[in-house]
Amino acid sequence: MTPALLPAAEAVGYLAAILTTVAFVPQVVKTWKTKSAGDLSTGMLVMFTAGVALWLVYGVLLRSLPIIAANIVTLGLSAVLVGLRLRYGRR
Q1: Is residue 5 one of the residues assigned to a domain?
Q2: Interior CA angle at 82 toward 61 and 29, to 5°?
C-alpha cells in the first residue's frame, strides 16, 4: 500500500472497528435487561468469542491499533454475553 493511502486505510479500519463493536451492544443490553438468553446459541457465542480472541492476537502481531482496540472491546462484550447465557440461558 502506498504511504498516501495509509491514513485512509486507518480511517476505514477504525470505522469498521467502531461499527462492528457497537453493533454488539444492543444484544448485550437486551440480554442484560430481560435476563433472558435462551435464544442465544451457545455454539455461536463460543465460536464468535474464539474468533474475536484470534482477531485480537492477529491485531497484536500486526501492531494494528484499530484491530486491537475493536477486538478488546468486542471480546469483553462477548464475554459478558457468554456469562449471561450461562446464567440466564436455561430459564
Answers
A1: no
A2: 100
